[in-house]
């Protein structure tokens, strides 16, 4: 098994024109073969012994255990606050290195033949163990790796459907959380009420019909989820793309958490958002809401249009006044 993996590694280190894949998904995984293998090997080591089940034999597991024991002792002997030199380096012993890479290859699996959720199900328990037991910047180190989109999605820590909003803004966080045919430009800042009525009936029916605020918070959070699905990133980054103030987005998330989490109703939101996403994927034509937002961000109602609207309204004698144009512009925008 080690020799077979070595031959595959050799082929990727010396690619030929004949060996290059033509399929986009296959090509991306092939391009990142070495980087993915390195990242998976680090995850095996950082999460050991939770990752022991991925060793294809007891002999392989023994080799990894021997390496991890020596590696852990090296890290434990360091002075407080000092980093261990070459802490992320490969094992010096060839057999230990081969064993670690073999388990990493098992973890990655045949990504050309399986779906993304299967990879995420294997990765997430190990990622949780690795990030919990090690330094606080361990997760950031993985985010800086130039791995394939599939592995990046599998590694992302998520909370209530969103990538966790940490202080790191590495580009790999912008990998979309699923394969969507619609783009972030096709998502409005507030989901249209018609979409809410068509997809969120099971959820909105649980609220008081007189409550006008929860549906509005729902429309905003659903849009944030759709943009995250299409473009990745954390919810503050998604809010900025939609032109939603950070504090406004946070408020909407807080309101829905208080309303849905105690009764275990958050899955209803996820199901409804996925239904909207499927509808957008099936649509042949999409509205470019991003162009609308850019166009209207600096737009004001022209004076020549405002004049006939205010004929006979004595309080609007000075229609060119900003105090007049601003609220009328906002009403037209709305």
What would you say this structure looks like, in words?
This protein has 334 residues and is mainly alpha-helical. The chain is 59% helix and 1% strand. The chain is built from 17 helices and 2 strands. It has helices spanning 2-13, 24-31, 33-47, 58-76, 94-108, 116-133, 138-143, 149-155, 193-199, 201-204, 213-231, 235-242, 246-260, 266-282, 289-297, 303-309, 322-333, and strands at 158-159, 162-163. Strands 1-2 form a two-stranded antiparallel sheet.
Following the backbone from N to C, one meets helices and strands in this order, namely HHHHHHHHEEHHHHHHHHH
In whole angstroms, the N-to-C terminal distance is 63 Å
- The count of DSSP E runs of length 2 or more, i.e. the number of strands, is 2
* Count of helical stretches: 17
Radius of gyration: 26 Å
Q: Would you tell me the overall average pLDDT?
A: 83
Write a brief caption for the model.
The chain is an all-alpha fold and 334 residues long. The protein has 17 helices and 2 strands.
Helices and strands in order:
Blueprint: H1 2-13, H2 24-31, H3 33-47, H4 58-76, H5 94-108, H6 116-133, H7 138-143, H8 149-155, E1 158-159, E2 162-163, H9 193-199, H10 201-204, H11 213-231, H12 235-242, H13 246-260, H14 266-282, H15 289-297, H16 303-309, H17 322-333
Antiparallel strand pairs: 1-2
Helix pairs in contact: 3-5, 3-6, 4-5, 6-8, 11-12, 11-13, 11-14
